[in-house]
């Protein structure tokens, strides 16, 4: 049976079991809500584990050592889900106002994030809640090419077009809710109307559409991220069928789970127990279990910790360029050095092996422009050294009092502190030169 046919057959079976009693429905929706909150946020880089997400939402317990921002993301996402679930049963049309209000609930309050200019230079932008983007939010692809979403100027008109398209499709007599929800997801992502939170927003909107037609929500699991993104990339190339099939197959999974729950059967999935067991093992082994360095772990460290460190260092180091006649940024891995930032990020990644022992970022400044204070140079350096079971940071060759295991990533705060310390050293260096004069 084709995926769409199977989904509608399962929906018919589910409808035959309705109405569910209150306890059954609450138990099933709690399962969906926990999975939805964990996976949708984890896809975007949230560090809370499934167990920590569950503890926060069910018992209000916060996870020690995890950023406050990650807790707020989960809480905001949960509020947005509950708000949408309440509106599924009412006569609430999907409008731009609905979408902006959802975005406000999701992100809770404005904040600043790292970004890139259209030319690929690092910058910062303020994420406004419930408002369309004011700056471009194009992304750099894995091939080093820039992928362009709608510009801020185009966004209002494109969102208006999207809503007109949705109203026309939704009012058709032979509307297919699955095709409607999946295509809406893709069309929204191609616009990327907000400065941040687009993925989380559209996954909620897609599920709002599905639930309006009596389907359960689709949960895109974090371990399936590569397939999700691959299907989206195929749609970018003009082939949307794989994305529709991908969404349908995930909907089939949700339908089967809901049918089991409606029949009073277990709705626990095999990986639920595995996740809880892994969390228990991590707690038992915290601080005592060594993690051997592997190429896979180094790749994960590079993507999630080293590359963000490179971008933060580049952003802050650029602020000193005006004080020197010449300056250049280099990124380093073992014996490989490149000044072609950020394109060299992929080149560095391709050379990672289990024998990689160092990543570094280096800003060389030559000839202070105010010659009255002397003709001097300066080097700003952050290195990450890779040992057998842990990695540690050096600032200008000196230990930075930061050592972590390979299953632990650098937090945003740790990255900011490393860069800030090296930039502060540079500022104090210049001040010393001025004081001498």
TrEMBL record:
<keyword id="KW-0067">ATP-binding</keyword>
<dbReference type="InterPro" id="IPR040198">
    <property type="entry name" value="Fido_containing"/>
</dbReference>
<protein>
    <submittedName>
        <fullName>Fic family protein</fullName>
    </submittedName>
</protein>
<feature type="active site">
    <location>
        <position position="192"/>
    </location>
</feature>
<dbReference type="Pfam" id="PF02661">
    <property type="entry name" value="Fic"/>
</dbReference>
<feature type="binding site">
    <location>
        <begin position="196"/>
        <end position="203"/>
    </location>
    <ligand>
        <name>ATP</name>
    </ligand>
</feature>
<dbReference type="InterPro" id="IPR036597">
    <property type="entry name" value="Fido-like_dom_sf"/>
</dbReference>
<dbReference type="GO" id="GO:0005524">
    <property type="term" value="F:ATP binding"/>
</dbReference>
<feature type="site" description="Important for autoinhibition of adenylyltransferase activity">
    <location>
        <position position="44"/>
    </location>
</feature>
<feature type="domain" description="Fido">
    <location>
        <begin position="94"/>
        <end position="249"/>
    </location>
</feature>
<dbReference type="InterPro" id="IPR003812">
    <property type="entry name" value="Fido"/>
</dbReference>
<keyword id="KW-0547">Nucleotide-binding</keyword>
